[in-house]
Design brief:
mainly beta; 13-stranded mixed β-sheet; 2% helix; DUF5916; 744 residues; hydrolase; signal; single chain; 3 helices; Immunoglobulin-like
């Protein structure tokens, strides 16, 4: 009882300014050059003082940041004057859409519907490099951040002796908002590498992440915002290229091709947007970084295709997530997603199972339409329909995908959401494994308290198919309480044996998963350590009629250093029962697998470490050492990085696993040097190699990008895959693509 009372009442809520900031209307022309010499900036007041978030959350920022906002009929303007110790800054590169950590920048977050759930993020650094993103689920976790969203806006910065300034203009056509609204919510935060300080416009406790939308101030416009006239954007493309499959020379996709299509974005209302695509081409999307998966189950990768991104949480936010409040931010650089189960995963559209090989391969999308956004202050709506094409050569039938999602806000930051997903196979006779249809319906309750101490969700999903499987359900519940000194999280998921979500992400079925975590945080504020947390975590899977099949449990130590380095160390007890044969040596089935029905208890220790990213050289490392099934493992994954600012960023991504089991030994490794050369804010070259010993494959990927106009690009992409066993090329392609963004 005493501990419960401490959890509930030990930490006071930090005060927030609820007096609206008055945003002045202007008729003068503002030149976006980073020089704040327009009269409107003299007239406008600053939004307020910034507070430290790191190294402490109780003091005012050492150096001031003066943020001001103005607007006219077409744009909202934001300026910032960022005082500093000198004019020497850390700039990662000219690459757009950088993450905030480890470099100098200022960020502006706009919650246009005042719901503290979804927001637009815009950021600038001292060289005027831009970034934008979408925040969702209240931005209560680092995973609720989509940096792949791209849209039209302008910005510029200028460096002076002891400060730098930035100025941006965001078209109202880029934003979604309620017509005639007088008020938005706004927040801003800044990273100052010279004194290693992170500061925020609103005081935020360190147990909450800096993006959290629960900490914002109201901004009030001089007169209510009107709809900015016709808001239609056309984004046509033309692409040409040549592809060769040297393994299967009869592949009809071999040879030269000319392709064209495009997207359209139409504002149906000021809060509701219609996205259309015809014959989309995703050749310019950066390839996923490969990972060596030591588990028995599939992993997922983030969605990067522009058509699926805006309001993506309305469709893909259902289901269960892995959330570890003690894991260092940005620790998922390997690319794997953190979703455990989802009834809808947009990357399933455009990917199909090749009936001749059993592998997942690209499947052309003929068209797509998405209607998504806000209906009013409380309701959000998402409708999606997409059609894929037949591929007789690979035995792939075209399919129609339909999704309906509805979300209703309740209380201050919570909502009830429902989803229905339908996949209709057009020609199931093309493969004996195809079904006529697959459908999933789901209902969820997502909860976030006003002060962000409590977060949680409850969900129930049911799948439907012509085979009428029993136990075709999935349900779960999670709750987390987090204050400065204590964090507790409980989560469980129960997935039935017959649950089948073909358009979702369901790596395993027929289990009950529990995942409690308890941690205590301390703030020594000495020269070395800023904060450390100790605790214990458990993740366990149980199957009916079998019992426990998987368990990982043990204590952990999380540390945040004053240098901004951070780490998570854990000692783990593992238990695994194999309900099917498993290639534990990751030999690609060349060596004997561990047999079904075997069970193992083993112990190991792992570390997740980020060095100081402000340095020219920095390291991300994930070592693992100890027992592995009935043998031993030594594993090291991570990335060694070098920066020659602002032009060159070099990274050596690596994974090495030495697995020693009684049935044999194997060394599995993946190495991938990467060069990101940014010639300017408009011209970029990225090239990398990925050698995967498990599949004896060398992948070479080079992408040249010229942004010749806002959100308008020319791409040239070269891809080659080699069989390292014989030195022969498996497949090769070169693609050129031109896109242009028209505003009508």
């Amino acid at each position: 009882m005493r501990i419960l009372l401490l959890l509930l009442f030990s930490i006071p809520v930090l005060s927030q300014n609820t007096t609206p900031y008055k945003v002045n209307f202007t008729t003068e022309k503002i030149k976006i050059d980073g020089v704040l010499d327009e009269p409107i900036w003299e007239k406008s007041a600053t939004l307020g003082d910034f507070w430290q978030y790191f190294p402490t959350d109780t003091l005012k920022a050492v150096y001031k940041t003066d943020v001001k906002i103005a607007y006219d009929d077409k744009f909202v303007y934001i300026s910032a004057k960022c005082y500093s110790q000198s004019n020497k800054f850390v700039i990662l590169s000219y690459r757009r859409d950088y993450r905030a950590g480890g470099n100098d920048n200022v960020t502006f977050v706009i919650d246009t519907f005042n719901d503290k759930t979804n927001a637009f993020l815009f950021g600038m650094n001292p060289l005027g490099v831009m970034r934008e993103a979408l925040l969702y689920n209240g931005a209560t976790d680092n995973s609720f951040f989509s940096e792949f969203w791209d849209n039209k806006w302008t910005g510029e910065s200028k460096i002076y002796d002891n400060y730098w300034t930035t100025e941006i203009a965001i078209p109202f056509t880029t934003l979604r908002f309620k017509e005639n609204t007088p008020q938005w919510l706004f927040k801003s935060y800044r990273f100052d590498t010279q004194i290693n300080e992170q500061s925020t416009l609103v005081q935020i406790p360190q147990n909450q992440i800096i993006m959290n939308l629960g900490y914002a101030i109201p901004i009030e416009f001089e007169k209510p915002l009107k709809k900015s006239g016709a808001n239609i954007s056309l984004i046509p493309y033309i692409a040409a290229g040549n592809a060769q499959d040297f393994v299967n020379t009869k592949n009809p996709n071999n040879g030269s091709r000319l392709n064209f299509g495009g997207d359209a974005k139409i504002a149906v209302t000021s809060g509701l947007n219609l996205d259309l695509t015809i014959n989309p081409d995703f050749s310019n999307v950066e390839a996923d970084r490969q990972v060596i998966n030591l588990s028995r189950f599939d992993i997922n990768y983030p969605e990067q295709r522009q058509f699926f991104l805006e309001n993506s949480d309305l469709f893909s936010g259902f289901g269960s997530y892995v959330i570890n409040p003690f894991l260092p931010p940005q620790s998922n650089l390997g690319g794997a997603g953190n979703q455990i189960i989802s009834p809808f995963f947009s990357r399933q559209i455009g990917i199909a199972r090749d009936s001749t090989t059993g592998l997942g391969v690209p499947n052309r999308i003929v068209y797509g339409a998405r209607l998504s956004g806000k209906l009013d202050d409380n309701w959000r709506l998402g409708l999606l329909n997409a059609q894929t094409a037949d591929d007789e050569f690979k035995g792939i039938s075209g399919a129609n995908y339909g999704v309906l999602a509805v979300q209703r806000k309740i209380f201050n930051r919570s909502n009830i959401a429902a989803i229905f997903v339908n996949k209709q196979t057009l020609h199931p006779e093309m493969s004996p494994k195809l079904t006529n249809f697959n459908r999933v319906g789901g209902l969820e309750y997502n909860f976030t308290s006003k002060d962000s101490r409590w977060t949680g969700k409850a969900y129930y999903h049911q799948s439907f198919s012509e085979t009428k499987q029993k136990d075709a359900f999935a349900n779960g519940f999670s709750i987390m309480y987090s204050v400065l000194k204590y964090t507790f999280r409980w989560a469980h998921d129960w997935v039935g044996k017959g649950y089948d979500a073909e358009v979702g992400f369901v790596p395993r079925k027929d289990y009950l998963r529990i995942n409690p975590t308890l941690g205590f945080s301390f703030y020594p504020r000495n020269k070395l350590v800023n904060r450390y947390s100790v605790g214990v975590a458990l993740e366990q899977y149980t199957m009916p009629n079998i019992g426990t099949t998987d368990r990982i449990a043990g204590p952990f130590l999380s540390m945040f250093f004053n240098s901004s380095a951070r780490m998570l160390f854990s000692v783990n007890q593992n238990y695994t029962y194999l309900f099917s044969d498993f290639d534990a040596l990751r030999s690609n089935n060349k060596l004997a697998p561990l047999k079904r029905g075997s069970e193992y208890t083993y112990y190991n220790a792992s570390l997740n470490y980020f060095s100081d990213q402000r340095k020219k050289w920095w390291l991300f490392a994930q070592p693992l050492i100890g027992q592995y099934y009935d043998g031993n493992i030594v594993s090291l994954a991570g990335s060694l990085n070098y920066r020659y600012q602002p032009y060159i960023a070099l990274a050596m991504n690596f994974t090495y696993n030495h697995i020693d089991l009684p049935i044999g030994k194997n060394n599995v490794f993946l190495i991938g040097p990467r060069l990101d050369w940014t010639f300017s804010k408009k011209v970029f070259l990225t090239t990398y190699m990925q050698y995967n010993s498990q599949f004896e494959n060398m992948n070479i990927n080079t992408r040249f990008q010229w942004r010749f106009a806002p959100v308008s690009d020319f791409f040239l992409v070269y891809i080659d895959n080699y069989n390292t066993a014989n030195g022969q090329s498996r497949n090769r392609s070169i693609q050129a693509k031109l896109t242009y963004w028209f505003n009508l």
